[in-house]
Amino acid sequence: MTTTCYDRIGELITNVPELGDGSVLGLRRDAAIVVDHGDGTTPDGTTVGEVVWVGDAGSAPDADERVDVAGRCVLPAFVDSHSHVVFGGDRAEEFAARMAGQPYAAGGIRTTVAATREADDQQLLARARSLVEEMRRQGTGTVEVKSGYGADVATEARSLWVARQVTEETTYLGAHVVGPEYADDPDGYVRLVTGEMLDACAPLARWIDVFVEDGAFDADQAREILAVGQARGLGARVHANQLGPGPGVQVAVELDAASADHCTHLSDGDVDALASSDTVATLVPGADFCTRSPVYPDGRRLLDAGATVALASDCNPGTSYTSSVPFVIALAVRECGLTPSEAVWAATAGGAASLRRTDVGHLGVGARADLTVLDAPSHLHLAYRPGVPLARPLTSTTAPGASASGF
Ligand SMILES: [Zn+2]
Fold it and tell me: 355 C-alpha to center of ligand 1: Å?
């Protein structure tokens, strides 16, 4: 057991109101925080400790080592609750063509399905590991990873095995796109997703997700798939209302899904449903940016109605090939109507709520010791300085005794 005191923090975001200024960010100036590195490990082998003390700079109890943060801002590591980092190939040419004015080619997901089926386990794992490492270097501590580019039993199960190597937050998304073999028999594909594929995937997953959209899965199919998954102990998530109005949000709320993701096209009824439920609205404006969507999700409307909002990268090769939560924060402020403080809360505590986690997304005593430091005096700089690599891990990927590196 090793303890470290991170001292002389210029601005500490705890997300615990009573630990700070009473705001939802629980902001505290001239602070210190003590972490016990413990001996727990995550599936990717990083050491996890916990927060054991929060208070004023210079007044912390004795610790085995002390790190001078020199006035920087420290906040909970980002919780990126929506990613698709298990895939083969890339779609750079398709992106370039789209930016050159060619229409978005439907069936892009199928390009990645073919490349993912061709890739072997080690190729898929190498790609997923490198993207998760890229996320961690930019201040993300918890990552959710979905399957969904297999669309057959073997590749969906392999994808979840890979996901399991990099995170405990794994999501079975067999219902991402109808497998090419079932193009003329979508109901047959739903039977596969709720039968043999679920049998192979459920032991490797914490969540089940469905892409509810014209051309993907409709409300009845989604209800059936999610209910069967829930009966196996999986929590529900939904890709909802991304490309147009639709039933995704209503299905998510009806089934008590932890999260309805995208939420770009919402009716008043959808907003009310989210606001009066425990289903988090997870916005992924990186996807709207990368597809040059004419509309962004209206985060302001959701917050004003009382909904809980999260932000995530949606890192995937087709429509949002970014691993950067700080970029997403900047977009959410510029395009979704969130204030910089609301965006930081959504990318930390909001992400944790969407994964129904109480140990991450805040820095109260007992929280997981995933701390992110900014080369800046304030969290406002995340949105104020878009594209600048300010965020990096303070603790989440470091072994005890190595946490002072970088200063
Ligand atoms: Zn997605």
Answer: 15
Ligand 1 centroid – CA 4 distance (Å): 37
CA 82 to ligand 1 center in whole angstroms: 6
Q: What is the pTM of this model?
A: 0.95
CA of 261 to the centre of ligand 1 (A): 8
Pick the CATH number of 79-354 from 3.20.20.140, 3.30.428.10, 3.40.50.80, 3.40.50.1820: 3.20.20.140
Question: SS3 string of the chain?
Answer: CCEEEEEEEEEEECCCHHHCCCCCCCEEEEEEEEEEEEEEECCCCCEEEEEEEEEECCCCCCCCEEEECCCCEEEECEEECCECCCCCCCCHHHHHHHHCCCCCCCCHHHHHHHHHHHCCHHHHHHHHHHHHHHHHHCCEEEEEEECCCCCCHHHHHHHHHHHHHHCCEEEEEEECCCCHHHCCCHHHHHHHHHCHHHHHHHHHCCEEEEEECCCCECHHHHHHHHHHHHHCCCEEEEEECCCCCCCHHHHHHHCCCCEEEECCCCCHHHHHHHHCCCCEEEECHHHHHHCCCCCCCCHHHHHHHCCCEEECCCEECCCECCCCHHHHHHHHHHHCCCCHHHHHHHHHHHHHHHCCCCCCCCCCCCCECCEEEECCCCCCHHHHCCCCCCEEECCCCCCCCCCCCCC
Q: What is the mean pLDDT of residues 73-101?
A: 95
Q: How far is the CA of 210 from the centre of ligand 1 (A)?
A: 9
Q: pLDDT, tens digit, for every residue of 142-166?
A: 999 999 999 999 999 999 999 999 9
Is CATH 2.30.40.10 the classification given to domain 3-77+361-393?
yes
> With 50 as the cut, is the pLDDT of residue 400 above it?
no
Give 147 Cα–ligand 1 centroid separation in angstroms.
Answer: 10
Note the pLDDT tens digit of each residue in 26-37: 999 999 999 998
